[in-house]
Design goal:
Strands 4-3-2-8-21 form a five-stranded parallel sheet, covered by helices on one side. Strands 10-17-11-12-13 form a five-stranded parallel sheet. Strands 22-23-26-25-24 form a five-stranded antiparallel sheet, sandwiched between helices. Helix content is about 30%, strand content about 25%. The chain is globular, with a radius of gyration of 24 Å. The model has no long low-confidence stretch (mean pLDDT about 95). It folds into three domains: about 210 residues, FAD/NAD(P)-binding domain, CATH 3.50.50; about 100 residues, FAD/NAD(P)-binding domain (3-Layer(bba) Sandwich), CATH 3.50.50.60; about 100 residues, Enolase-like, domain 1 (2-Layer Sandwich), CATH 3.30.390. By secondary structure, it is of the alpha/beta class.
């Protein structure tokens, strides 16, 4: 198979397949090369199946707290393998949906591993066999990333898990330790804790969810402690030793205290590294910095005609960032639409633990570090009628404004369904709204979103319900 296209996309994740569809919509003859599953890590092993798992753990938590709502159920229990099976069915369904969308948009899908093979050329192989040589004036690399491995604590699929094993466990562990408290680690910690496991989280930084605002991190830390988790910050895992019952994990805490924690399983969630190997970058002008491809604001690499998007290019490692970059990159190539470099401060981030966490823009500390004089608003969900009616009054909405211009610099939320609500603040950031527009916006009652309004009002001394 040898054929010429207008665009070749290497990688069928949320960046790659969206780029391919948008290119076809704009009249480009497009080929998409994918070596494993359409939809990539996000759809098959990340964003989607983990949300199915977390939904199950939410239900389990609710079943064990029914008395708060006036209900009773005798001996609520679950079939763990059915929980896992449902999450896989959700992923399979959506992967099939991506395949349909690509076919509908006349994108040629090539099954195999794609690598640059000279100017304008991608060579595709499968299981050591040549599959195709494709040519195009434009090539987008969207090969994504994989779990980072700590030396001496390499995942073995049995005792030490990555996210993949954590989604396909043979049995429900009674105890586990999670290394790392970013979104991936915290979501698995929350899932297994709500399913009944004894969970320990170890974070090398001085707080969990270190990319979030400090107040939000502290709020989640306290919530996890109340839920029965053990959370160790400023701590390092020094050794994982196999035992008859699982693992003995040696942890060194701040101040030099060393302890040994016995668990059945360890989940390693210490970040990701870009898939830059074996994609033909050697001999090109593509630059790699700390396992990630360097690009400009329009996703162009140093090699003419070669672009890169998504997790391959570095943080924030978010599916929606990858999809946005895919569209941006293609529209910049065609020149048919006006495009602007992506502003990462306008990209919302979400963590689907219990309670949920969501944010967009600058933290209070980052805003001050950039020289802004700030006005900060806070509204606790205990003052929100809908949250109390739901039985979920644990939460906080925090907004950060520039004191002189009224620009919304950042918004930070913890509580029920905040991952759905953050988009309101994301729109405000994109539209460059000030406190005036937000204050004069009418929010419906009774809703959780009213707390967003109250937080803005609080920043300007006008809050009503606290």
């Amino acid at each position: 198979m040898s054929d010429a296209y207008d665009l070749i996309v290497v990688g069928g994740g949320p960046g790659g397949y969206v780029a391919a569809i948008r290119a076809s919509q704009l009249g480009m003859r497009t080929a998409l090369v994918e070596r494993e599953h359409l939809g990539g890590i996000c759809l098959n092993w990340g964003c989607i199946p983990t949300k199915a798992l977390l939904r199950a753990s939410e239900i389990n938590h609710l079943l064990h707290t029914l008395d708060a709502y006036g209900f009773a159920a005798d001996n609520p229990r679950f079939d763990f393998q059915e929980v896992i099976k449902r999450s896989r069915q959700v992923a399979t369904q959506l992967s099939g949906g991506v395949k349909h969308l690509l076919k509908k948009n006349r994108v040629t899908v090539v099954d195999g591993h794609g690598a640059l093979a000279g100017p304008r050329t991608v060579h595709v192989t499968k299981d050591g066999r040549d599959v195709a040589t494709l040519t195009a004036p434009h090539i987008i690399l969207a090969t994504g990333a994989r779990a980072r491995v700590l030396p001496g604590i390499e995942p073995d699929g049995r005792l030490i898990w990555t996210y993949r094993e954590a989604m396909l466990p043979p049995v429900m562990p009674k105890s586990l330790l999670v290394i790392g408290s970013g979104a991936i680690g915290i979501e698995f910690a929350s899932f297994y804790a709500d399913m009944g496991a004894k969970v320990t989280v170890v974070e090398v930084m001085d707080r969990i969810l270190p990319v979030e605002d400090e107040e939000i991190s502290a709020f989640v830390h306290k919530a996890f402690i109340r839920q029965g988790m053990t959370v160790l910050t400023g701590a390092t895992v020094k050794r994982v030793a196999k035992t008859a019952a699982g693992a003995a994990v040696t942890v060194e805490e701040k101040g030099g205290k060393v302890s040994e924690i016995a668990v059945e399983v360890v989940i390693s969630a210490v970040g990701i590294v870009g898939n830059v190997e074996n994609i033909g970058l050697e001999g090109t002008e593509v630059k790699v910095d700390r396992t990630h491809v360097v690009t400009d604001g329009l996703c162009r690499t140093g090699e003419p005609g070669v672009y890169a998007i998504g997790d391959l290019t570095g943080p924030p490692w978010l599916a929606h960032k990858a999809s946005h970059e895919g569209v941006l990159c293609v529209e910049a190539i065609t020149g048919k639409n006006e495009v602007h470099p992506i502003d990462v401060t306008r990209i919302p981030g979400c963590t689907y633990c219990r309670p949920q966490v969501a944010s967009v823009g600058l933290t209070e500390a980052a805003a001050r570090a950039k020289g802004h004089e700030v006005r900060v608003g806070r509204f606790p969900l205990i003052g929100n009628g809908k949250a109390i009616a739901l039985g979920e009054p644990e939460g906080l909405i925090k907004t950060v404004f520039d004191a002189s211009t009224g620009e919304l610099l950042g918004a930070h939320m913890v509580g029920p369904e905040v991952t759905e609500m953050i988009q309101g603040y994301a729109i405000a950031r994109t539209a460059e709204l000030t406190e005036a527009e937000l204050i004069h916006t009418v929010f419906p009652h009774p809703t959780l979103s009213e707390a967003m309004h109250e937080s803005v009002l609080d920043a300007y001394g006008r809050v009503i319900h606290i």
